Amino acid sequence: MGENPIVTNAPPTGPGTPATPGGIDGLATVPHWIGGGAYGGAPERTGEVYDPATGRVTKRVAFASPADVDAAVHSAAEAFATWRNASLTRRSKVLFAFRELLNARTADLAAIVTAEHGKVLSDATGEVARALEVVEFACGIPHLQKGGYSESVSTKVDSYSIRQPLGVVAVISPFNFPTMVPCWFFPIAIAAGNAVILKPSEKDPSAANWMAEVWAEAGLPAGVFNVVHGDKVAVDALLEHPQVKAVSFVGSTPIARYVYERGTAHGKRVQALGGAKNHMVVLPDADLGLAADAAVNAGFGSAGERCMAISVLVAVGPVADPLIEGIVERMDGLTVGDGRRACDMGPLVTAAHRDKVAAYLDAGVASGAELVVDGRGIRVDGDPGGFWLGPTLFDKVTPEMSIYTDEIFGPVLSVVRVPTYDDALELVNANPYGNGTAIFTNDGGAVRRYQNEVEVGMVGVNVPIPVPMAYYSFGGWKASLFGDSHAHGMEGVHFYTRGKVVTSRWLDPDHGGINLGFPQSI
Ligand code: NAD
User: Fold this and answer.
1) Looking at the chain, which residues constitute the CATH 3.40.309.10 domain(s)?
2) Superfamily designation of domain 278-461
3) pLDDT of 433-444, one tens digit each?
4) Catalytic residues
């Protein structure tokens, strides 16, 4: 295959068993997936993959070297040469087949997500369902990639537009949605005729290999979808490789900024989605029961490890006390434990992340916030070695405290009290992040003002911040997104294609003669 032969000396793996057999310590290694199969021999560098609910290392994951990335790019470039000319019918048939397999095997994929991320099974199942929506959107590629045609733009001259794929594109994804976030990008990229290299988070890598195998089963030609695992070394190699034309990144804001700057400096089209600090504003006329439900669901779902989680509750006027009372009542009933059991909330992704989040509890108290519910030392339905931290609630938080300024990315909800709607708006707009926000009220005029005035990319009205449907686009403003394109929807189709306009005249007896003037419509 091209200049860099693909070494597939690892035994073939079937769906659900995405790792190579154990090494000397008995742990299997999750391999790269290049050119339609597991790639490479024993990697020089590996990372550890944990089961967050037990705290035990369950696998290793290969870390790609620049040479591994180069092999993936060559494989993708070779596959692109053919795939870009596959008919729309062929491409959409593969997409439909992928959709059917993913749908039928949702439970298998959700189990992999829970085992490596820790989120409870129902949440992992929901993640796969949201991933499926983008695949379903991409199945409509024959319509989505259509251009326009104008007859007689000039006398006997026609003009039409086409959208063509870019080539090899990279997707670099975070740990918190190992299925949904990559699926915001690669189904559309592949449907549009590109070849993809996915670099998933090294913390939960197996979902990517599982999906690679399902693509192969769906009939996608080898090399159109590749997976390289690893860290900064792999990311930098992708950002600098001359044959990688575009990069879609999702992760924390500092890395998103870095990826955007380095990728564009190397001539690539880049969309880099960053971190978040999402505010939920509750006005005095809101349904407080609804608002309390929403705050708990969006604050503690997936242990707060969602870019759409609510982390700041902005209580306007007199709502704070009754709202907090309702929230505490609901928090009392939450169960925390192993995501494979019937629990509401699972562990955090790693011990280091759990400790970092827990440190914010001390910081909040030290800075004068009121710790209403302390998530440390909670009863857990799971292994004592798991990375546990229970739901936590702070009241009387102020904008200079680190629990307000920092993206904590854990089950910590902060209440900021403000006197008026205008104060709430000012607070939200002064925040450097602009991913999502929600407003709870029964006042249509206030909602209309908020959606008009708030400097945030995604807004929920009486719903905690929802991920927009696949046919709309996902993305924040300010420090939550670097680049011009949001993910999926028509912005996704445009990101993965380049426009071209053709103006044509077919010869007829009337040739028109010589005219050196600037071409104009006649
Ligand atoms: P992260 O930034 O640590 O990692 C994201 C990706 O970047 C991973 O693939 C990782 O391997 C890679 N990476 C890590 N360090 C790197 C470095 N120094 N150089 C180059 N690449 C590097 O993020 P995470 O902890 O995996 O995910 C959580 C973050 O992602 C949160 O900040 C969350 O808000 C954000 N997120 C944002 C959205 C969104 O839509 N805006 C969605 C999901 C998650």
Assistant:
1) 278-461
2) Aldehyde Dehydrogenase; Chain A, domain 2 (3.40.309.10)
3) 999 999 999 999
4) 307
